[in-house]
Amino acid sequence: MLNRAAARKVLSFHPQCQRIGLTHLCFADDLLIFTKGSEEAVGTVATILEKFYLVSGLRCNPSKSEIFCAGVNEEVKKTLVNCFGFKEGTLPVMYLGIPLSAGKLKAVDCKALVEKITSRIRGWQPKLLTYARKIQLIVAVLASISQYRMNIIQLPKKVIKEVESMCSKFLWSNMEQNKKAKVAWKHAAFPKEEGGLGFRDLWSWNQACLARHIWVVLANQETLWIAWLKEYWLRNISIWETQIRGSWVWNKILKTRPLLNSSLVCTEAGVEWNGAVMTRFSIKTVWDSLRPRRETVPWASLVWKGPLIPKNSLITWLVIQDRITTLDKVKKWNPDVLDICPLCHSDPETRDHLFFSCSYVRTVWSIVFDPWQISLGWTFQSGVLAAVTRLGDTPKHNT
């Protein structure tokens, strides 16, 4: 009905919608209507909605509907608001879970997202969860953010840090306690092959998500958004050359260009990424090229892969990071604590001593590694780390 009214020139288009003939956006029962900010145009919309009610029996709920005005004076604004009986809305406004704003998105605008994640994590706290299970849940939380919201908007850095802080607290203690993390998030947010716990670096993932929009423009996909960009902001100008202007979201998208221009190119075959045609944009591939990187570690496959108990894998990872609570660390917090190893009763209990140099433990390791004829060194680095690396390349023997 809105489109027919616009085609008959009964309904006036919004100035930024006329070239593509856009009157509204609708998803399920969420409806956005765009029109000129005049009493006549708004009155026409009100008439169309009333006719729709008479035909369908469906009517807008005034308590859940708002009118947004821009570029009009206060007198005209009051008149427009009175045409519907709706309250005047203010930006940002939530639409399909995304805060819509004409200006820069602030941390307070993402309050609903943070509260949702907080509620979700608090719901898990009463349960007796292992570290391994907590890691699985955190991965699910980060995926829920990255799969939808980050594909559309740039989350403020403050929000990303707050989400990561909540996840870190949940992993190592709980939301109410302010215990120090065993391993800082910045060290855990790396792939397991690089010595991390497999968490995503959210900031670089968000950049990769925004970069997807550059690919969409280059691939010339037939979408409403692309049609609007071509008519109002690009106007036959390459996306590599267009100036940063307009909305904050668009500017954030354009600022990802320096991250892409050496890898993403248009050819006769299509849009290519590092020389290979990219028929579908892979956020993971782009993220992998943008994220912070570390050298791969030789022990990752032995710690994480195979039929292993997740709890034991995490304990092994903590041992490698030297983040287990040995008596030498306890003594730093409480000088009255005796830090002598309870197994050999001769030397202070440190990570290296407890797992390798203790006479009792060395006997255990000798039995474990005897089938492979591996000789252990006296330190962590030269001992078991070298041994497990060698084991990764050695056929297993039956014991």
From TrEMBL:
Residues 281-365 form the Reverse transcriptase zinc-binding domain. It holds the Pfam family zf-RVT. Residues 16-99 form the Reverse transcriptase domain. It comes from the Eukaryota. This is Reverse transcriptase domain-containing protein.
